TrEMBL record:
Top-level division of the source organism's lineage: Bacteria
Record protein name field: Transcriptional regulator
Database matches in InterPro entries: Cro/C1-type_HTH, Lambda_DNA-bd_dom_sf
Signal sequence region: none
PROSITE patterns listed in its UniProt record: HTH_CROC1 (PS50943)
CDD domains per the UniProt record, alphabetical: HTH_XRE
Length: 73
């Protein structure tokens, strides 16, 4: 998948726990963990917006595009 979550990096940067962030965003720890570990293949824009607000960041801080050689063939 060419777009991946980098939530783990920004959580480490701000030294925030999964529980603290889940409480701030208003989603379950299980769903947030799925996003953090890359097991989630989709997220609502409202969730992305809530994460950006809670972490004072931009969507580009949470997501990264990784080119896939087979994707461009």
């Amino acid at each position: 998948m060419p777009v991946v979550w980098r939530l783990d990096r920004i959580m480490a940067k701000y030294e925030i726990s999964l529980k603290q962030l889940a409480d701030r965003v208003g989603i379950t720890q299980v769903n947030l963990s799925r996003i953090k570990t890359g097991k989630s293949t989709a997220a609502r824009f409202s969730t992305l917006g809530a994460l950006c607000e809670a972490l004072d960041c931009q969507p580009g801080d949470l997501l990264e595009y990784i080119p896939d050689a087979s994707f461009n063939k």
